[in-house]
Design goal:
9 helices, 65% helix
Length: 217
């Protein structure tokens, strides 16, 4: 049985959806507080078209989260398939930051839409994979023993800031900054850290605060 060809209307609708998501990624990367109207203008579609596809800002951010989650899961899977534990750990962070620098949504790992079971499952899958990368590198003696998955998220946040600040002057500057950070993860010569890592709950609150600036409980 052959699959019917998409109708012109369906193709147009999918093109509009892709255009909106690409525009939203660019707009929210430049300004996390940007309005839906700004997204529609950047996408070249009417505000009504945007709201028919994504009735709320939260719906639009959730769609972006799902789209970028697939990229991040692929990056994680590639790292987990790498034989050398330290190389795998470094590769994971390098590829994530490279994706940010090449146009990926710099807030996708640091912005969290409202809780849903599907989103929580995706977040937990990523965390479990990060935990495996960390444990392998720690067991090999290459990664300092006090690192947790919650220590990786501030690295992503910091790298996004470096990418944004240096993009027009030296777009490869983030590589040096990340290399310096990775040296700090090495077990050799490690010193005690002054504070414990953030808890999962604290990190979730940080992510929510970045997406919705203002007073938070």
């Amino acid at each position: 049985m052959t699959t019917p060809e998409p109708t012109p209307l369906r193709r147009d609708a999918e093109r509009n959806r892709a255009r909106i998501l690409n525009a939203a990624r660019e707009v929210f990367t430049a300004d996390p507080d940007a309005t839906m109207t700004s997204v529609a203008q950047h996408a070249g579609v009417g505000v009504g078209t945007l709201y028919r596809r994504f009735p709320t800002r939260e719906d639009l951010l959730t769609a972006l989260y799902h789209a970028d989650h697939r990229v991040y899961q692929d990056i994680l899977d590639e790292a987990l398939a790498t034989a050398d534990p330290w190389t795998a750990f470094c590769q994971y962070l390098q590829r994530l930051c490279e994706h940010q620098a090449s146009g990926g949504m710099r807030g996708a790992l640091t912005l969290t839409p409202t809780f849903s079971r599907q989103l929580e499952t995706q977040r937990q899958q990523l965390r479990n994979g990060m935990q495996t990368l960390i444990e392998r590198a720690q067991q090999s003696g290459s990664l300092r023993p006090d690192i947790t998955p919650e220590d990786l998220q501030p690295v992503i946040i910091a790298s996004a800031a470096v990418v944004t600040a240096t993009a027009r002057v030296n777009p490869r500057a983030w590589r040096r900054a990340l290399a310096l950070t990775l040296d700090g993860f090495r077990a050799e010569g490690a010193h005690p850290l002054p504070e414990p890592p953030m808890t999962q709950r604290e990190l979730f609150r940080v992510q929510r605060r970045q997406m919705n600036p203002g007073p938070q409980p």
